Amino acid sequence: MTETKMNGAESLVHTLLANDVDVCFTNPGTSEMHFVAALDHIPGMRSVLVLQENVATGAADGYYRMAGKPASTLLHLGPGLANGLSNLHNAKKAGSGVVNIIGEHASTHIELDAPLTSDIEGIARPVSHWVRSSKSAQDVGKDAAEAIQAAMVAPGQIASLILPSDTAWNEDGEAQEAIEMPVPAPFDESQLEQAVAALGGEETLLLLGGQALTESNLEIAGKISAKTGCAILSEWANGRMERGVGRVYIDRVPYPIDLALKALAPYKRIVLIGARAPIGFFAYPGKPAILTREGAEITKLANAGADLTAALAALCSATGADDTPPAHVSEPTQAVRPTGPITLEAIADLVALSIPENGIVVDESLTSGRAFSPATKGAAPHSWINNCGGSIGYSMPTSIGAAVACPDRKVMCLTGDGSAMYTVQSLWTMARENLDITVVVFANRSYQILRGELTNVGVGNPGPRAIDMLSLDRPALDWVQMAQSMGVEAQRVADCETLDAALEDALANSGPNLIEIVL
Amino acid sequence: MTETKMNGAESLVHTLLANDVDVCFTNPGTSEMHFVAALDHIPGMRSVLVLQENVATGAADGYYRMAGKPASTLLHLGPGLANGLSNLHNAKKAGSGVVNIIGEHASTHIELDAPLTSDIEGIARPVSHWVRSSKSAQDVGKDAAEAIQAAMVAPGQIASLILPSDTAWNEDGEAQEAIEMPVPAPFDESQLEQAVAALGGEETLLLLGGQALTESNLEIAGKISAKTGCAILSEWANGRMERGVGRVYIDRVPYPIDLALKALAPYKRIVLIGARAPIGFFAYPGKPAILTREGAEITKLANAGADLTAALAALCSATGADDTPPAHVSEPTQAVRPTGPITLEAIADLVALSIPENGIVVDESLTSGRAFSPATKGAAPHSWINNCGGSIGYSMPTSIGAAVACPDRKVMCLTGDGSAMYTVQSLWTMARENLDITVVVFANRSYQILRGELTNVGVGNPGPRAIDMLSLDRPALDWVQMAQSMGVEAQRVADCETLDAALEDALANSGPNLIEIVL
C-alpha cells in the first residue's frame, strides 16, 4: 500500500483497516477534517456519528466487549477527548481495548495557545495505557499500528494517538500492513500447586473475572466446583459474562458493603483467576476496605491479562475434574409471569422471561436491579455486561457499541433514570443507526443509591436540602418525549401487564425503542 | 468559628460562605455525602443540582462572568471531574474563576485501586491553575480559602481542591474566616510611552479584551478613539462585553481566517489592553497563523490579569482625551420588524428588537449568528457573552450560571442545535430552578460550521460519507419535545411572524422556555 502517494489521514485509515479496526465512533471537528475526507473516499470503515463524545468512548467499550477487537474513536482536540474521558475510565477498568484518534492543532500552531489548545497528552494519560503524539505524516501509519497493538494487550488497553493536523494533511503518509497482535501472558504456573492445595481444603472460593467468564471457561469452573466442592463467584462488576439456561451459573460478590462482607466471610482460601482480591467499592467510616475474612489465604493464579483459559484448564486437570460434569448448571427459569403493580421482583421476573435467545443485556440498573442476577440465571442464553468503572452513563453508549459489534443479536439496556440522563444523546445515534436496542429506564426519579450511601457514610436523618440533591422529581423527566425527540419510539408503563406487553412488542421488532417504567 | 467541633465537610462549607462563595453547582456521589449533609444543616449555600457535570462547570463559568466572584462545584471523584472538563477548559480560556471541590476515596482506600479510583490530580491539572489534595480534615478550611484566593487571581482562575472522604468525615475541621483576596496586577507602565506614540500615528488599532469591555472602560476607549483616530476592536471571543444603545460599540476580530486577515490588514500599530496578539483559531494549510500584518508593531500595555481600568485611564489622560466625547456610541437600532420567511438577517434583526433592557445574551450561534454583532449594536443595553475556549456545549450551562448570578435580569441563550445537544441536560436544571432563560435553538440540522471548515482545510467536493458525518438530519431532533421532556415550555417557529411572537411571549414571562427555529 505504500507505493501510492497519500496523506497522513489516508495512511491512518488504511492502517486501521489493514489491522481489522473497521468501526469509528466519532464527533469530528476542524482539526479532523482530513480524516473525515479520508473516510469518505476509502471504503471499509463504518463511521458512527455521536452527539457527545462520551457516547463514542462508551460505544467503543461495548464494541470491544462483544467483538473482542478494538473500535477507533475520532475526537476533536483536548475538549473532545475530555468529553469522552469518563467512559474511557470505565473502559479501562473493564479491560476493554480502544484506539482513540485525537486531532490536534498543526505542530506550528500549538505554541500560539489558540482557544482550543490544551495539554492533550495530559488529559489522555490518566485514562490511557498508551499515549503518543505523531511527529510527522510519515509516522502516522506506524504509530497507528502500534496504537492498535497497545489496545490489544490482554485483556484490552486504552491507546490514545494524537495527530497534529499537519500530520494528517502532509502527503508523505505510509500505511502499515497487518502487524502481529499480542497474545495473553502465561498464567502463573508457580501458583498452580498452591491453588490445587487450596481447592483440596474446605471453605475455598474460586473467584473469577474477565475472560474466565466465557461459556466454556465457566463450564470448566463448574467442573472444578463439582469435583472439589469449592464455591465459585465472580467480581461485582464484569466486562462480560455468559449466562442463562444450560450454562454454569455464578453469583457476583455483592455491591453493598455489609452484604459483600457476609458473602465472603465463609472463605479461608481464595483462588483468583482473572479477578482481583475483593475490596470495597467505597470506604465507609468504621468498616473494612478489604472484604475477605481476616487471614484468608489468597492464591493469585492468573491476573486479567493472563491466559485464563489455560489457567482454568490446568486447574481442572490438576484437580482431576476433566471428566466431572459441571455443577451449578442453570435450569430453565421457573418465573411465573407477574401481574398487577410493578415491584422490583416483578421486573426481575419479567426481564428473565423477556431476555431473547442470544441477547445482550447491558446492566446499569443499580438499586432497581439488585434482584436481577439470581432471577435471570435460567433465562435464555445471553451475555451480561456490567459497569466496571463506576462512572454512571455507561449503559446506553455501551449498548450502541454492542449492537454495532453484533448486528444479529438483540440488546437490552437496563438503566436507572439518573444514569441514562448522563449520556442521553445516545438515543439519537441508536435511531440514526437503527440499532436493535431496547432501553428500559427505571424511573424512580432519584439517585436512589445515594440515599443508602448517605446512611452508609454515617449521615442519619438527612434534611430536605440533602434529599433534594438526590431527587430527580422536580420536574419529573418524561422519557417518552425524550426518546421521541431523538427519533426513538417509546412508551411508559405502570403495571406488569403493560410492561410485559411493551417488552414483547419491543423485542419482537428490530430497531431501537425505549420503555419507561415509573417506579 | 473554630471553637465548635466540626468535621472537614462542615469546615469547607463555613469557609466557602465566609469568603462569599455561596453557590454550588453539583452532582454529588457517595464520596461527597458528608458535604451534602453539611450543606443540609448549614444555611446560606445555594445548591443547584445538575444531571451531568459539564452543566455544573459551565454554570460556574457563567456565574463568574456575571457575578465577578466564583461559584463552587461539587464533583464526584475523577470521572465526575472528567465529565465537567471541557467547560472548565472554556472557563479557563475565558478567565473565569471557579472553585472545584472534588471528592476522592478515603486516603487509605486510594491504594486499593477501587473501580472509581483514578488520577484526579492528573485529570484536573490540564484545566486548572491550582490543584491541591487536602491531607487531613484540619487542612480543609485553609486549603479551601487558598483555593478561593487562587480562583480570584485576575482575571479569574480554575482552582481544583480534592478532598479524600476521610478529610470530610473526620472531626477536627477548622473553618477559615474571610481572607484577603488578590487584586489585579499593575499594567505595564513602561509601555505607556510607546502606546501613546502608536496612537499618535496612522493606521493604529486599540485591541481590547477581558475587563476592558465594561461599559465605563469602553467609554474610555471611545474617547481615545475620538481623540486619536485609532480604530478599536475586541478579540473574537470575549468573556463578557457590555453593549447596546448609548454604549461605545466595538467590533470583534472575525472568526473566518480570510475575514480576520482582512480586518487586521490595515493596522501598522496595535496596542493591546487585556487582549492577546491575534492568531488563527485553527491552522489552515498555506495560510498564516499570525493574523496581524507583517511587521506590525505590537505594544502590550496590559494583559488580561492586569488592572485594565487603570491602563485605559492612563492612556486616555496621556493622549489628552479626558474631555473628548467618545466615538462609536451606538444609536438606537433602526431595524425594521422583518416578516415572511426566516433568514439569518431576519433573525439578527428580531434578536436586536427583542433583547430586553439589561438582558444577558449568551451566544453560541456559530454560523447562524455571524450577523448578530452589527445588527444588535443599537439594541437595549445588555451584556454579551462568547465562548472563549471553542469547546461546544457551553451556552446553556453558562446561561444557568448567569441567571443564578443575576436573578433580576433576563437571559437569552442563542445556540446552534449541535452545540445545544452537547449539554442538553441543562434544560432540566433551568426548569428545576425556574431560571429566567429563553433558549433559541438554530436548528440547521448540521454541524454547518464544519462544512466551511472542510473547504478551508483544502478538502474539495466532500462525498456522502463526509457530509453524513456533519449532518444532524437523520433523524431530525425535535427540540419542542426535548425541552418539554425536561419540563421546559417550548415552541417551534418557521417564519418571522411566529418567531417574533414567540420571542415576545417568552421574554414577557419569567421562567425558562425554548424556541426552535427551523432553518
TrEMBL record, chains A, B:
MF (Gene Ontology): acetolactate synthase activity; flavin adenine dinucleotide binding; magnesium ion binding; thiamine pyrophosphate binding
Domain Thiamine pyrophosphate enzyme TPP-binding, first and last residues per copy: 380-517
Keyword vocabulary terms for this entry: Thiamine pyrophosphate, Transferase
Top-level taxon: Bacteria
Enzyme class, spelled out: transferase
Enzyme Commission code(s) on record: 2.2.1.6
PROSITE patterns: TPP_ENZYMES
GO biological process: small molecule metabolic process
Pfam families: TPP_enzyme_C, TPP_enzyme_N
InterPro entries: THDP-binding (IPR029061), Thiamin_PyroP_enz_TPP-bd_dom (IPR012001), TPP-bd_CS (IPR000399), TPP_enz (IPR045229), TPP_enzyme_TPP-bd (IPR011766)
Domain Thiamine pyrophosphate enzyme N-terminal TPP-binding: 6-111
Family membership noted in the UniProt record: Belongs to the TPP enzyme family.
Protein name: Acetolactate synthase-1/2/3 large subunit
